[in-house]
Structures are given as C-alpha cells and as structure tokens.
Design brief:
The protein has four helices and 20 strands. By secondary structure, it is mostly beta strands. The protein has two domains: about 1-55, SH3 type barrels, CATH 2.30.30; about 65-260, Fumarylacetoacetate hydrolase, domain 2, CATH 3.90.850. Strands 1, 2, 3, 4, 5, 6, 7, 8, 11, 12, 14 and 17 form a twelve-stranded mixed beta sheet that branches. Strand 2 and strand 3 form a beta hairpin. The longest helix is centred in the last third of the chain and has 11 residues, at about 210-220. The protein is globular and about 55 Å long. The termini are far apart. The structure holds magnesium ion (MG). Magnesium ion binds next to loops. Magnesium ion binds near residues 67, 116, 118 and 231.
Length: about 260
C-alpha cells in the first residue's frame, strides 16, 4: 500500500493512496485514523481526490535520519573517492525534512548546492542489532529522497553536519510504498526535466538489508527513522529557480523547487 500524509487546510492526516482501476494512476486517498507507524490501519470512511490535497513529508522522523555516503561505486569515483569497505554513515537533523513541492532554500553559506536522488527506507519498529536476513521485518516502507548537499561545505568541513543538515535539505515523498522489492529499482533525477541521474538500486555497494543491519549495530532504530541509501552517479549543481525531480520505480516522483531567500 501507499501511505500518504496530507492536508486539505486542516490538521495533517494520513491516508492510503488508491489507484484508478482503468488508468492505474494514483488518484484518490482513503483517510485513515491516526499514524500508521504507531496504530493499525483503519479507514475513517472519508475519501479525498489526490489533486485536492497538499501532500506533506510522509514521515517526520522523531529521532534521526541516517545518511549513507558513497554507496554507489560510480558516484564514489566521480567525486574521486575509494570505495568504502563498510557503510559510511552520517546524521541529518529532522528539521531538514520537507515534503513534495516544498521549496529547498539554498543558504547563503554555499555557492555549490547539489541534488542527490536516493531511495529512503522508513523504519517501522524499534530494533537493535538486526541481522540482515531479518531487516525486512523492521522496515515500514520506502520513499524518494533528495539528499541535498552543499558540496563546497562538504569538502571544507571534516564533518558533514552543515553540508547535509540545513533546513529544507531533506525532501521526502511523495508517499511511503510498503510493498516493494528494492533489489533492482530504476532511480532517476531530473533538473528542469533534463535527466541527470539514471541508475539502479542494484548498483548499491551495500544493499538495504546490509544498511539496516549496519545502522542498527550502532543505533537503536525507532519507528519513523529514515535511512538514506546513497546516490547513483551524476550528481551536480542546482540553482535557485530550478526544479528537481527524483523518480523511483514502484514509488513515484518527488519534486521540489529550489529558491534563495
Ligand atoms: Mg547522499
């Protein structure tokens, strides 16, 4: 199922995105009670057309976003790095999260802001030391992410907290797909409609199960925690006024305008 968080001008709600049986396009949302990360999914009986809602970030992590660097060999090479022998983790504050169509604000501290299209894993239950073979049991679902990076600050700072952590630097959406085989998903990024990244999750050095196992060997993972699984080759700059789309097969497309204030 596809779990969306949305508003029609009132308090945010969760719902299950339903497809038109003729076109198979996502077209309306069946509202559910509460937060599906914490309560069983039960419909309220209300229905709303997808085009009449504003989609919000499908999850606001209460605890943490775990980023993974250099998890695609071609991307590591394009930045001039060796391949990692174990996952390279960093943390992103939850205040960086925004939803579909929300503007990414390029801050004055950077003159080299990059997009990074990524598959995001949403954790569904509290866990620690999860074996890779059991990773699926702790995953709630998957969404698209843009791991926006101030590349100049990433080079100048020993830690990536600033380069990755500015407000609005972690767009998530458009919804969470709970039933997905992530072994070979096409992942594409477009800037103003031009394809700039065109990869497959099959090229990850460490797959989703490996990353859940590795992260949970360090941190207790909590419901709503998000793991960004790394970006394929083709990263590059984005300027104010441009629009970046991240599309992943089986999930959908996350689009955000970039602005300067
Ligand atoms: Mg990244």
């Amino acid at each position: 199922m596809r779990v969306a968080r949305y508003t029609t001008g009132q308090e945010p709600s969760y719902g299950i995105v339903q497809s038109d049986p003729d076109t198979m396009q996502s077209s309306w949302i069946a509202q559910i009670h509460g937060d599906p990360l914490y309560t069983p999914v039960a419909g309220t009986g209300n229905r709303v057309e997808l085009e009449e809602v504003r989609l919000l970030a499908p999850v606001i992590p209460r605890s943490k976003i775990i980023g993974i660097g250099r998890n695609y060999a071609e991307h590591a090479r394009e930045l001039g790095h060796e391949l990692p022998s174990e996952p390279l983790m960093f943390l992103v504050p939850n205040t960086a999260v925004i939803g579909p169509d929300d503007p990414v604000v390029i801050p004055p501290q950077t003159s080299e802001c990059h997009y990074e299209g990524e598959l995001a894993v949403v954790i569904g239950r509290m866990c620690k030391d999860v074996p890779a073979q059991q990773a699926a049991s702790v995953i709630f679902g998957y969404t698209c992410a843009n791991d926006v990076t101030a590349r100049d600050l990433q080079r100048s700072d020993a830690q990536w907290a600033r380069a990755k952590g500015f407000d609005t630097f972690c767009p998530l959406g458009p919804w969470i797909e709970t039933d997905l085989d992530t072994t070979d998903l096409g992942i594409r990024t477009r800037v103003d409609g031009r394809t700039v990244q065109d990869g497959s999750t099959s090229a990850m050095i460490f797959d989703v199960a490996d990353l859940v196992a590795y992260a949970s060997s360090v941190f207790t993972l909590l419901p709503g925690d998000v793991i960004l699984t790394g970006t394929p080759a083709g990263v590059g700059p984005v300027e104010a006024g441009q629009r970046v789309e991240v599309e992943i097969d089986g999930i959908g497309t996350l689009a955000n305008p970039f602005v300067r204030r």
